[in-house]
Design a protein that fits this description.
Layout: H1 2-19, H2 22-26, H3 28-67, H4 72-99, H5 122-131
Helix pairs in contact: 1-3, 3-4
């Protein structure tokens, strides 16, 4: 998993460099495709950075505890930091697993949904209005 995340981080950095290039800005089609890829990589890269920071904090706290020679307060604070960072690592791992799931190619497409009261008369129309309230009263009328 970390190899894939490192590759994504590297690609994200490459895209950031390309987006600042004047030639790419002038090529609207290439610029648009890079921006789309940047948009899809951003949440993964941000969560991976959070994951790496939590690992770093965990290692620092563990090192402090292993060295010893700490008074009771510092030892308690280091233990709390270690526990918090372990919890954060577990949360980040779960979120990264979800973020790494393959995307559906139709995710970026628009959709039209029709909400209307069908069989059921006035109650169905009221329920449809609860699902999607319309701000103009002329657009919604009861039978």
């Amino acid at each position: 998993m970390t190899d894939k995340l490192e590759a994504m981080l590297k690609r994200y950095e490459e895209i950031n460099e390309k987006l600042s290039d004047g030639e790419i800005i002038n090529n609207q089609e290439l610029y648009r495709s890079l921006m789309r890829e940047h948009k899809t990589l951003t949440p993964v890269v941000e969560k991976y950075s959070e994951f790496k920071n939590a690992q770093k904090e965990s290692n620092e706290a563990r090192q402090m505890l292993d060295e010893g020679g700490l008074d009771a307060e510092l030892k308690e604070m280091a233990q709390m930091q270690l526990d918090d960072s372990r919890r954060k690592i577990a949360e980040c791992e779960e979120e990264l697993k979800i973020l790494l799931l393959p995307r559906d190619p139709d995710d970026d497409r628009s959709v039209i949904i029709e909400i209307r009261g069908g069989a059921g008369g006035e109650e169905a129309a009221l329920f449809a209005n609860v699902l999607y309230p319309i701000s103009t009263p002329a657009a919604f009328s009861l039978p």
